[in-house]
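Researcher: Let's continue the batch. This sequence belongs to Ni,Fe-hydrogenase I large subunit, and it's 351 residues. Same format as the previous ones, please.
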Amino acid sequence: MLIGNTPEQVLSVVPLLFSLCGNAQAYAALLACRAALQMPAEPEADAARECLLQLETVREHAWRILLDWPGLLKRQPDKTAVAALLKIDRQFKACLFQDGEAFIPDSRLQIDAPRLQSLLAELTGLIDQTIFDGGLSGFLAITDEAQLRDWLDGNSALSAELLNALYRWNWLALGYSDVACLPELDYAELHRQLQNEDLSAFCRAPQWQGHCYETTPLSRQQAQPLIAELQSRYDNSLLVRFVAVLLEVAAIPQGLTASEGRAYAANCIGLAQVQAARGLLIHRLALRQGRVYDYRIVAPTEWNFHPDGVLAQGLKSLQADNADGLRQQAEWLINAVDPCVQYRLVLTPEN
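Model: Same format as before. Here are the structure tokens for Ni,Fe-hydrogenase I large subunit:
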């Protein structure tokens, strides 16, 4: 759909193609176009855009928690809370950019600080109420498993119910794999790898220097004391993954610390990396006579759901007494890794 378009047309089309992580997709497209055209950076506007990416991460996590986690616990989701979340989310662009146009080359900053702070407070309150049942600040103060167990004791919050179920069923270490977290990708090396390999194959099933990696919220949260301590006991299992998501959704609205989107240019080729909710997102475009003749996107799902990747390896490690138990374990693991598309789970009897 993007081949033959001008960069300006690309930037108008990309947000229409992606309903999930639309801000991350639009920002990656903008960075890639800007790099290919050798346009200057926009530090202040980019800082605001990166804040929008962080807020989108909160929305994506909270949305999935409110919709999917009740189903894992055999409960009905709170659709009123989901609607309130989406209503708040839609207002952030207008607080930062004129006409809410954040991801075009001539975006104009127009920051309404009081309104922005009000929305952040409203978002924090909604998350605190619906996911943590008033215990958000207590959760953020946890630094080790003993404190986590104390916080979970007698706690009826949605987040606590899910983590308590893992303890009750002894699923804490479920889904372990030896797939490591994706290291920082050097732009020059990434460009060389894409030039030397089948680009279509890389987009469908990416590897870095011959190895599969994961890029998830866990990848971003490894430095947190609670995650580091849990990983020393449970590695990259279900408990650690769910806690990492909860840490992001709880912490981001209270102190935006957006990661920096980065871009690389080489001979009318623009290569951009940004952190989307589910992990690293890569856009690569090539221009010829001012129009796109090649455009590739590598989504986090392609890393995480690689045939030899973290989910595939985690599924192979599952053990259950019956098919229903195995299906339930698989559904929890898939949800923890979190695809950005619908999936179909099929259990095949052994011959």
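Researcher: Any comment?
Model: The chain has a mean pLDDT of 94.
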